[in-house]
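hi! just following up on the protien thing from before. the input was this:
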Amino acid sequence: MDPAQRRDDRPDSSSFPSGHMAAAAAFTAAVAPAWPWAGAACAVPAVLVGVERVHDGAHYPSDVIAGAAIGLASAWLVRASPRPRRALLCR
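and the predicted 3d structure came back as:
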């Protein structure tokens, strides 16, 4: 497929940000603090998701970068949020 034809195959709707990349980055960022080796293993397919989305013409690079930022921020917010006290859960 030539580049001009690929450009015409871009979606008509808004594709900002990349939800696929947000999910991949969030999962990787959530796993990495608990299991660093698994986080490193998850980072490879997460990066490949972003590359594939741009290569297939589904997103611009900025869409993928924004999706990754949203995923990383989401994982950070979940980890930084206060945890309920165990006594409240056992009543």
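The longest helix spans residues 36-55.
The CA atoms of residues 79 and 87 lie 20 Å apart.
cheers
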